[in-house]
Each structure stands twice: as structure tokens, then as C-alpha cells.
Amino acid sequence: MQRVFDLTAAAAVLTANPKAQSFIKAVRKFQSAISVSTDLADVKKSVEELQKMREDVGGSGHIARALLTHAVVVYCRASHTKAVERYDVGVIGAYSPEQREAHKIIVSLRDKVLAHFGSGGGWHDERVLYLQQYHGDAITAVHHRVNSDSMMSDILENLLEAAIPYVKEKEVDRAKEIDDELTKAPELFKLIDRIPFDVKDFYKDVPGGIENFWGANGFVAERTVRSTTKIQDPSRAEPKRRR
Description:
Shape: elongated
Order of helices and strands: HHHHEEHHHHEE
Structural class: mainly alpha
Distance between the termini: 59 Å
Number of strands: 4
């Protein structure tokens, strides 16, 4: 028999129960790790596309810009930004001192160029001009904006090589924390049993979603003391260059 229960919903129901706080925290910590892992997987896809465009951007400079913006902003959301809705996963714990400096470069690019307007650092140059012509003077402006930079995609690629497996380990550790909490408080199963997860409704707009959820490769099993905790692979749910 195949059954699945919604621990996120159970944690919400138990919010006011002081005895359930450790369980709620464990659920939210695991959910945060999965969320960050999904963000990093999305970043990797954008970086891979940027690498394919490395030699010939052609007329797709705007696409390169969009890919870089997505990669940088989502990377920072996963590794740098403090979020109210999810616990810190500590991505930079995976990095060497050199990688931490590279991480700062990406954060600065997000802060001073892509998400907010700053001095530009060579990414954009905008000038107001006074133009004198035979048929009359005029005030105008010119601008130059760089679409992408292969060095930035290289930096992100290197950081992701360390960050993704690091967060995957966090997923396993935090899944075990949930299992430990359920072991200590078996009465929680009485509540959980009343909150099933509706797979059909969740995946109703996702072609093949239901089949992938229950498929043989849909879960990675992690053996724990009391039971088998299963971690769904997030990838199955539903992630002009500067010269």
C-alpha cells in the first residue's frame, strides 16, 4: 500500500502546541534545505546554458543577460539572503577561503549591478550629453550595458560544485532529525495519519508528475534507526558576453 502524509501541513496544525516545537523546527529545517537545494539546481541550469553560449552569443545577448541575472539573484537567495520563511542552511560552509572571496564577488554583482543600480563597475556606462549640431543644439544621452561575463559564470560553476553536494548532505541530516522527533513522540503519528498528502491535486498541472512521484527512481531512501526516511529528489518535482 502506498500512502504519503503532509508533514508541512502537520507542522502548521501543531504551531500552538508547545510539545511539538522540536518536530516543527525539524520539518522546517528539512524543508529549508530542500528549498535551497532546488534554488541551486535552478542556478546550475542557467549557468550550463550560459556556458553553451560562451563562444557565440550572436543576437541572443538579452537571453544571456536574463540567464546571468537569474543565476546570480537565485544563487544569492540560496546562499546569502536571510529569509523569514526558511532556516539558514549555511551554504558558505562548503567553501574554501578563496571561494568565499568569489562568493562576495557574486553578491556584489547582485547588489550593485543586477538587483540595484550602482556605479556599475564596468557593467554599465551612462552619459548625459550636450550635442551641438548645425540645425540646433540638443540634450541627449548614451548608454552601454554589458549583457554577461564568462568569468562570472565560471565563478558560479565553481561555487556550485562545492555547494550542491554540501546542501544534499544537509538534506539527509535534517531528514534524520525529523525521524528522531517522530521516534521520541510516536503520538504525532495520530495527527499525521489524519493529514494525507494529495499527490493528484499537487501534480494536476504537471505532466508526468504523479508517475514520477511514485516511480522507482522518485525517492532516495536513507536508512535511520527506526524506519526508512525517504527524500524526494527535488528535480522530479515540479532548477553578448563581456570581451
